Structure formats: C-alpha cells, structure tokens
Input
Amino acid sequence: MRVAVTGGAGYIGSHTVVELLEEGHEVLILDSFANAAPDVPDRITAIAGHAPRIVRVDITDAPALTAALQEFAPEAVLHFAGLKAVGEAVSNPLEYYRVNVTGSLVLLQAMQAAKCRRLVFSSSATVYGDPDQVPIPEDHPLRPTNPYGHSKRMIEQVIEDWGVANPEIAAVNLRYFNPVGAHASAQIGEAPSGTPNNLMPYVAQVAAGQRPRLSIFGDDYDTPDGTGVRDYIHVVDLAQAHLAALGLTATAPGVQAINVGTGRGYSVLEMVRAFEGASGKPVPFDIVARRPGDVATSLANPRRAADRLNWTASRDLDAMCEDAWRWQSYLLRKNS
Ligand code: UD1
Output
C-alpha cells in the first residue's frame, strides 16, 4: 500500500517507516528535517533493505504539501510531524498551535484534495491531564494542562469533526504513553538537541558520562517508592501499533482513540536501576523538588488496543534499556 508519513524522519516516525518498508509498503516521508538528522533516510534504508521516497516539506506549507500528496496519491497517511517539548510549548504557545494545529489542518485539507481517507494520528496520553483513575481508559475526560497537550486535543477534535462530516473517513488517534528505547540495530533512535526533557534520554547521557548526575523530580509522590510511575513503551512496539492501526482503518470507518501503552508502570528509581543493569554504568542522582505539572502515576488501560488492534507490547524493560544504551553508545562513538 502507498503510505505517506509526515515526520517520518523523526524519532517515532523513523521507526514506523522501517516497519512499513519491512512489510512491503511503499512509503513517502514528508519531513522538514527541522528536528531530524539528514542521514536518517539512509539509515532507514540500511535497516529495511528498501528506500522510502522523501519530500522535504514543512507541514504548514499548503501548496507544497498538497502537491506532494497529489503526486504520490497515498491510500493512507500516518501523521507524526509536530513539536513536542512541553516547556517550550508553555513559553511559545503560538508556535505550537501554528505548527501542530495549523499543520494538521493543512494536512487534512491536502488529504481531502488527494482523496485520501485513511489517517493514523500521533496523539499523546498528555490529553488526559491529571488522571482521575489509573490505568486510564480512553473514555476518561480530556483536560490537558499545557499548550502542547491542548494542541493534541484540538487536533483530535478536528479529526473527529472531519469524520462526522465525511463518513468515509477512517482515522485512529493513537494516545502514546512514554515511548523509549531505539531500534535494536542502533541505526536510529532519539537524539535530543540540548538538555533532554524526558527521563530515559537523560539517564542514558548520565550513564554515558555526558552529564554528571540525574535530578529525580520528587520522591514524595503517593507511589511505592515515592518517585513518579510511568507506562514506558518500546518505540518498536509503538511503531508496530501504527501498522495495526493502519490495518484497522481499512475495515473500520469513523474516528477512534486508542491508548498505546503496556499497562505496566515503572518508577523513576526502577528505571535508573534497570538502566544501570543494562549499561553496566552507574547513574548517580539527586532527589530534587517536584517538576511542576507532573503527576504521580500515569498508566494506560491497554484493553482497547488489544481488542481493536489485536496488538500488545512485547518488549520488556530490559529490552528498552539495552536498546537505548546501544544507541547512546553509538552516538558517543560518533561524536567523539
Ligand atoms: C512528558 C511530557 C508529556 C509527553 C511525554 C513524551 C511533561 C510534564 N510531560 O511526560 O507531555 O507526552 O513526556 O514522552 O513534560 N523525571 C525525572 N528527572 C528527569 C526527567 C524526568 O525525575 O530529568 C521523572 C518525571 O518527574 C516523571 C518521569 O521521570 O516522573 C518521566 O518523565 P518524562 O520522561 O519527562 O515523561 P512524562 O513527564 O511522563
């Protein structure tokens, strides 16, 4: 099948493109390369043994995006392109709404012009905000707490309304929990520029000796060891969930939201210990104040994914840490 992938050179997008190519799909990557290395497509090709097509385009550039989709005539679109740093979104909300919301509007209009009716959207568990219950089911109220989360919720709403007006549309809003790890080949992974915002890349840099110590944001949460508990999911499992969602759009018209997580949580301290085990390196840390906006526990209820996508995560915490460490070690060698 012909599949267009916005943000296909990014962290989650690139892993998904590998899975698509390995399944024999024809892939067009639409990416501005604003937050991706120029050699990612070559690395994807090296892993998958097939090359994706590439169009360098900004998601908000309506004429260029429309022309690219009309030319490729995809049967489905996977939409990853967007900005994702919560702190940056709080200080620059207009840019977040421009890229994430306007970019998605431009994409849906371009899909309409190209008569493409199948969509999988990269949403986030952040749309739930501070949860009333864990594990979180998809019908939990949506009340994001920052502009990044609002932008994801707004895009989900736009897609829902588009689906109501066009019953032939089939779309899945995948709500990711905490994606971590890298491809086992260590050819692709997450390469945050500057100080990492998220736990796993930070821990990896401390283990690699690139940063002296981890700051653990609070040990007085209502959790077994007092540190925050999250539902970490291996990025390759997440990529495979996209292929399952793509399959669902072939048979299920309408718009649906589906959590992508394991349903199993790990605390910050458990993550540190697991990473030390996988890397054989110490991860020294300090306990510091809570990070504003953080919640004690966030876990997916993964039942709907199992029922509708026939998908469950298969890679465990050791695989997440080992693959993240292999990738981090590669980055270290590359930059030394
Ligand atoms: C964060 C975002 C969320 C986004 C997700 C993507 C916030 C408030 N939320 O989620 O919107 O969808 O990333 O993966 O930024 N921690 C430390 N020290 C660190 C970094 C993190 O102790 O240096 C702790 C946090 O307090 C938390 C856990 O590690 O308990 C996970 O943090 P993180 O990786 O940033 O993910 P989330 O906060 O769950």
Notes: The two ends are 41 Å apart (CA to CA). The pocket of uridine-diphosphate-N-acetylglucosamine is lined by residues 86, 124, 126, 148, 178-179, 197-199, 202, 214-217, 228, 230, 268, 291, 293-294, 298 (CB under 6 Å). The first strand starts at residue 2 and ends at 6. The mean pLDDT is 97.
